[in-house]
Fold:
Amino acid sequence: MNKEIKIQVLGSGCSTCKKLFELTKQAVNELNLRIEVEYITDIQKIVEMGVISSPVLAIGGKPVIAGLSPDIKKIKETIKEIIK
Amino acid sequence: MDIFYPLQLLSDWLVYGIFNLGKVSHLGTSLNFFIYDSLKIIFLLLVINYFMAIIRYYLSVEKLRDFLASRKWYGLDYLLSSIFGTITPFCSCSSIPLFIGFLEAGIPLGVTLSFLITSPLVNQVAVVLFAGLFGWKITILYVISAMILGVTGGFILGKLNLEKQVADYVWQIRSKKSKAVNKKESLRKLVKIFWQEGFSLTKKITPYVLLGIAVGALIHGYIPAGFFEKYITVENLFAVPIATIVAVPMYANVVGVIPIMQSLVEKGIPIGTALAFMMAVVGLSLPEALILKRVMKIKLLVYFFGVTAINIIIIGYLFNLFVK
Structure:
């Protein structure tokens, strides 16, 4: 397992964004990953990634989910696929 | 034949047969209205959210942005931007990154504002509710009005040279050209993904829709027909502007407002007046203004709201004049 990979949730601070952050933390926990999930509310960071919807789930600096807060199953699958 | 007729039979059977409520009782009519409308709308939502998941997959906002920025459009971009605004799902969480991202890609300010005006007014859920409650004719008129609102609003604002009124830091931001990439999936897997996405979205909004229908059902069952005609008539010229202004401090999703609006119209509120109220609740909300203040200086914000408000009032009058 690669521990250096960063998991970030970027959002404008709206409730959907906070929910994605909570769910991602939960997903990381349930997958027994020792990775800190970072929550970023600086919108410049979102745009700099090339994404223009919010919230964003970024793994290793790359946006993987943008514009919606999916259910936890989907988040877990996405994390598992990228961090093997 | 009405394809929803079986649902009407089902709700009649439940309310008048099983619950044994009278056909003219307030509770009976309300409950019947609630059950029938809820079933119909949830069914329609499931269908449309499935299709929207497909559209979302192939047409992300990022792609639309790149398309708009790819060449000079000579004014056609206002219309395109408005059309895109109607098909993309919109959450106020996205308005700032979207605003910055569009400008950063070189899309003119007016065109960006066209998108921002149309987007909250029309989305697939609003269309379903409109069609389910008002019928297709009014739905199409509504969508066209919202697009005209976006195009003219954006066009006027674009001509006012307000670029200096955008917060300065916005012009400094530079994006990397990386995008969220869609992985290649097999068709079978995609069908499943679309279904899951559509279903989970339907699940998420259903409580709000039901709440809206419940309030609508109470109005339907308990308020006498023509009740509002005494107070708000088509002839009352102040009704539309007042409805627009009253709506500004309110913040509600378009989803919750439509069923309530339908019941009010049924009880005698002119449709244009109700529509102006609804568009203002969704498109001119104070909380939205506070969000946008992070990227707009006060003058631009005032112009943006002012032009949109005037357009909403005009649409309200037109509906009152021409739609029965």
Observations:
- The radius of gyration of chain A is 12 Å.
